[in-house]
Each structure stands twice: as structure tokens, then as C-alpha cells.
């Protein structure tokens, strides 16, 4: 399937496109990578160089695709870190142009805006994601901070996540909500992912591996979307994404690497794990 991915790009490391493009390709998809920023490395490191791209430049790239009548070939649009608020209308225009030719195009939105209790994008971009992208999404990938902010429901632990996901889903066109990075209060060595759609609430657990690399959310979204687009089997996609991330972070932690070991672990996470299936929560 053809996926237009609109998010960040780095020269070194595995965040944004460098955390998502290869997993999607390895799972059999064609990825059209449109960068919103180009940095030397992730901004969490001691220094970085590079810049955000203006909306005019992003629109210029999209116009190039339109001139070749390529947007009608898309099966999905994935958005991640968008840089600035004026990029949001550009992403929407591309999505609507694709859906005008193929209404079933899937919009998967990773509402990248913050983590650890704080925004790391502008207030204007956070509001644009909330008001413009979330209502159009078919799939949303919020972390705990983003889930709380977008839903308006305080999340202090696993017990609060269902209500927050339900509240967020009411703001969408019946989107599939996939909440990631949920700590399990009873088991510190376990990380939980939850997914909510019309079939109910699903849960996948995997071993937690403390490490210092960034890009987990970008990679998880790709691992999930890469499998879900092919068969729309939510329990299998969620279970394999959770287990795949555990494999990647496990090798990253074991080697004390500062970047995710996505490439080095591919022979494990790229194979379907028929035992890694999410379970329904009643």
C-alpha cells in the first residue's frame, strides 16, 4: 500500500521518518516521506543543527505530487511531528485531495505535541492538531500526555485510560484510538498498549526495557499501521506492535545504545508473531 508520511526527518538517529519509514517498508508498504523539519539529530541531544520547513515549501512539494496526479494512488496518510501550525492545513489539503479520488484513504494521526506533562510544540500547533486533525482521523496514536490533553480527562494510571479514550473518540469520526506507553502500576517491568474501536477495548502487554533512546511512539505507530492496513485485524496488529517494540527496546537497552536498534532487530519484529495477540477487556 502507498502511505504519505508527513513528519520530521533527522540525519542521525531513529526518530520521525527514521523510526517509521523502514518498519513500514519492511512490512511491505511504499512510503512517500515528506519532511516537516530537517535536523542533524533529535533535539533531546546536547546540540543540533537544521531547521523547520515553512508551509510554503511543504505545499510546493505537495503541488509536485498533484501535478503528477499521484495523490489518488494513496491508501493512507500518516502524520507525526509537524513543526508549526501552518503545516496543518497543508496536511489536510493532501488528505482531502487523496480522499476526493479514493474516499477510503486511511488517516493515521500521531498527535505529536508533548510528553512528560508538558508541551514541546507551540500552543498554536497543539490547538490545530486538536481542532483540525483529530476530528478527521481514522486512527490516533496519543501518548499519555496527549491523551489527557486531547480528551480533557485526567490520566493518573491504567484505571483512567478507558474513560479518556472514550472521551477522545467522541471528538472523532469513530476513530480507532491506540494509547501507548501506559505504565502498569502493579508491574513495573510491563508496558501496556490499549486500543479502542467499535469492537471494544483491547490490551497488549510487553516487557518494559528502560533505555534512553527516543522515537518509541513513531516506531510503534509504524509497526501497528504496517500490519493493520493489510488485514484490519486489531488484536493481531496491537499485539505484534507491542511485542515488536519490546524486541527493539530490549536490544537497545542491552547494547546501551543511544538510538533505537530498529535495523539490527528486524529479523525478529518483521516476522508475524501469532502468539502476540491483544486481549479484549470487558
Shape: globular
Multimeric state? single chain
Q: Could you tell me the radius of gyration in angstroms? A: 18 Å
Low-confidence stretches: none
Query: Could you give the count of β-strands?
Result: 12
Ends apart, CA distance between termini:
33 Å
Average predicted confidence as pLDDT = 95
Helix content: 25-40%
Helical segment tally? 9
Major beta sheet summary:
10 strands, mixed
Order of helices and strands: EHEEHEHEEEHEHHEEEHHHE
Strand order of the largest sheet: 3-2-1-4-5-8-9-10-11-12
Q: Helix- and strand-based class?
A: alpha/beta
Please indicate the percent range of residues in DSSP E strands (runs of 2 or more).
15-25%
In brief, what are we looking at here?
With 282 residues, this protein is of the alpha/beta class.
Task: Write a structural description.
This protein has 282 residues and is α/β, with parallel strands linked by helices. The chain has helices spanning 17-26, 55-67, 87-101, 123-133, 144-151, 158-169, 216-231, 234-254, 266-269, and strands spanning 2-10, 30-39, 50-52, 76-79, 106-109, 114-115, 118-119, 139-140, 176-184, 187-197, 200-207, 279-281. The strands form two sheets. The chain has a ten-stranded mixed sheet with strand order 3-2-1-4-5-8-9-10-11-12, with helices on both faces. Strands 6-7 form a two-stranded antiparallel ribbon. A hairpin with a 2-residue loop joins strand 10 and strand 11 (200-207). Helix 1 (17-26) runs parallel beside helix 7 and helix 7 (216-231) runs antiparallel to helix 8. The longest helix has 21 residues, at 234-254.
